[in-house]
Every structure is written in C-alpha cells, then in structure tokens.
Design brief:
homodimer, 202 residues, alpha/beta, Dihydrofolate Reductase, subunit A, nine-stranded mixed β-sheet, 11 strands, 29% strand, globular
Chain lengths: 202, 202
C-alpha cells in the first residue's frame, strides 16, 4: 500500500457507544474520563496493530483543532504551550493548528513544526495540502475538527478503531452528521480493537 | 460452527452514530425514520451476508420486547395483533414476548408460537432456555430489551452489524451501559455492513 496518494484522511478510536473522548477532559486527563482506554490497542498490543499505526503516522502534514493541541483558551500566554507530546512530537512534519489567536510557528525537535492558522478549515487544508505534496494529509482531531471537515466533504477516508468498551459519556464523533454515507474498504480485528477503513462516499 | 452451544445471543444492525432504530417509530415505519436502511445488507446483498443471516435464524427460541412485537400498548384488543411478520413469521419456534398484559399463546404457521410473559426478563429467559434445550436463545430486540439483558449480564455473545450510514436520531443501543466490556471474536465486512461478533466479558 502506498501512502503517496494525496488523500485527506482521519483516524479515531471510538467506543462501542460512539465516544471518541471521555467526559470531563482536563490537563490531567486530556482524553477525558476513561478515554485513555480507547487507545489500549495502540499501547498494549502494538505489534498486532502496527499496520494501523503506520497509517496514522504516514501523512506528510497534519491538521488539528486547538482542543487537541492543548487545554489553553484565548490568547497565547508568554510561556506558550507547545502541545501534549514533549520536545519531539510524533508528527515529524508540519502540523496546522486551528485557532482564533495568531501565533508564530514553533519548530520542535524531530521535524515537527506547529503552524497556527486563524483563517478557517479550508485555508488550513490548503496549507496542509501544499506542505504534503503528493503525500497524505491527516485531520488528526479532535472530534469537532474531524466533524467539521466531514460535514464540509473534505475527508476522503476515515479509519475507525472501535474499542470493545463503553464509556457512557463524553464526546461523540458523528453528532449532527445525519446523512453521512461511508463505504467499508478494509477491516482488521483483534482483541482490543476492530479497525474499519471507510471511504467517504461523495 | 455449531449452534448447539446453549449460548444466549443478540444481534443488531447499528448505524455509525450508534442508532439501532430511527426516530419516530410508527405503524407505518416500525424501524423509525431511515431505520430500514440499517438492514440493507440483509436484503440487498443477502448472499455476501448469508453466514450472518444463518446465525440470526439459528436459535431455537427467541425473546423480544413488546415494542418489537408490535405498536399496541396496554391491554390486548379483541382482534389481537400477531406481530409484524404475517402468518408465517421467520422464527419457526417459540418466541417469548415481554409484556405487562397477560395473553394466551398464539400459534402461527411454520412453527412460530408467541408466548406472552408477564413475569420479567429472567423468567422469560428461563422459559426460552427450557424451550431451546441445547440450542441457542436469541434476545431478538428491540434495543431496550437487549439493553436490559446486557445490563443483567445475561447475554453471552452479540453480533453488531455496523451499517456505514448515520441516522442522526433514534434509539441508541448502549445508553446507560457505561462499563460494558466485550471481546471481538469474529468479523465479516463488505460494502453494506461490517459484522463484528463479540463475546461479552464477564
């Protein structure tokens, strides 16, 4: 499988009851209560799920919402937050962060650079496409950002990693997307997740 | 695969956004608005999905809620409703209908007999187990009935047939089941559905 296909992709871990994050997200609990369990497949059974991890890390540029980037709201403080991922984030490429508050780009170790986009989702996508060349662009999250791009018809392919648990509360991915039609094109299932790759039907 | 395994099973078609029936169920629209589309896989691509249909029809006894049996509430009228399925329902065996209103059993063509149980879900299960012998018992639906049996820990295996559509509104399967843990044991995926077989983890 080649990833030099210019696709715009998204991938999310989702509970049986449709939540991609638990309730009460916070600095201590960025994925909300129980939300970490959605990603057990990635950390506890990495080998069996490596092909999905490869796809998550294949894109050449990423887009994320400010809620995924960090818990800070409003203007950027002086000792600015640089994401959840430490000095060497796993993206190793440009990451376009949607925000209403301008900020200069921040170059991290390992090739990740955070660019802050105040001009909306389509401009962020245009910048990410330009940066990715023939490579993939990933709408990395969170849920509301993926939802906006899905609603706008901008996502070609989505990988849902269904964790076999219920959370009972949290943030739902598909709320408000009442006429989405997808087409399953691939599936990988093991104990901690069932990964379904969907093409978005235009 | 043998079905003479004494399991208590359930199977539901579910949308990407977690609905097993659309909004506004009615006599004309028993699965609610858009709910019929959840079952497209069964009617439009039967051959590719036959192994799932076989499992749905394998049990030797069924349990269903009164909402699945019909739209009538309260006491049974004189010209009593005999289900949605015509003179020869697809069950070909005993069907135990949960209700608060006593009624004599109704024998249909083809071996289906509707028994009306007013003594609760555990008694209905005991009766269904006795009728099924070493065969399977299916909790056929609707959502609230499956939810009650799941909450009580009475279901061994559940097949979720995930249709690649969103409905936007309707009845959710997993509401209130906030600590369910399942284990995927089988998957079958094609254009109109991804069927995941889960064992319920005790």
């Amino acid at each position: 499988m080649t990833f030099n296909d210019g696709l715009v992709t998204a991938n999310l871990s989702i509970s049986l009851d449709g939540f991609v994050a638990g309730a009460n997200q916070s600095l201590e609990d960025p994925l909300g209560e129980g939300g970490e369990r959605l990603h057990d497949w990635m950390f506890k059974q990495r080998e069996a799920n490596q092909s999905i991890v490869d796809q998550i890390l294949a894109p050449r540029a990423y887009i994320m919402g400010r809620n995924m980037f960090g818990p800070i709201r409003g203007d950027w403080p002086d000792d600015a937050w640089n994401g959840w991922w430490g000095d060497d984030p796993p993206y190793h490429g440009p990451v376009f962060v949607l925000t209403h508050h301008p900020r200069d780009p921040v170059a991290m170790q390992g090739g990740t650079t955070f660019h802050f986009v105040t001009t909306g989702i389509d401009d962020a996508l245009a910048q990410a496409r330009a940066a990715a060349g023939s490579g993939r662009v990933s709408v990395a999250g969170g849920a509301s950002t993926v939802r906006q791009y899905l609603a706008a018809g901008r996502i070609d392919r989505i990988i849902l990693s269904i964790s076999p648990i219920t959370l009972g509360a949290g943030e739902r991915l598909f709320d408000g997307l009442d006429d989405l039609a997808l087409k399953p094109v691939d599936v990988l299932s093991n104990e901690l997740a069932t990964h379904i790759t969907y093409d978005v039907v235009r």
